[in-house]
Amino acid sequence: MRKLEWVNFLFITGIVLGIPGCQITIPPPGTGGDEPSGGGDGGGPVDQVPVVSLQASNTTPQPNETIQLQCSVTAGGGETIRYTFQPTFGRLTVDENSGRANFIVTDTDVGVTLRFTCTAQNEAGTSAPSNEVVITPSAPP
Hints:
11% of the residues lie in helices and 31% in strands. By secondary structure, it is mainly beta. It folds into two domains: 1-35, no CATH class; 51-135, Immunoglobulin-like. A hairpin with a 4-residue loop joins β4 and β5.
């Protein structure tokens, strides 16, 4: 039996049996009741796997520019969200708690197409990969 159903059962049983002092305050949704809201970027019920979206600060950078990637929860959520980015390699600096990653473009990236996705994990599971962000570094004019 879910928490809120159990509280309602006890409350109704107390009223029917005439037990004095059976007053229960049920918190509104999202404040510790049956479906607590989440932390992280998206909030939402903890029993839902997150849904994520990925954005980049610039998709056509030049060498020595830092690209900021932001992975955001658009549905689901929970108190504990952990973000990962794909692909993983040494020049991608990831903050797995905030959903942010930085990538510094080098001369060797010019002309190469870089593709990034992200996922988020909460108590209910891991999201499907986000939309793909395509970064195409170019040489300075």
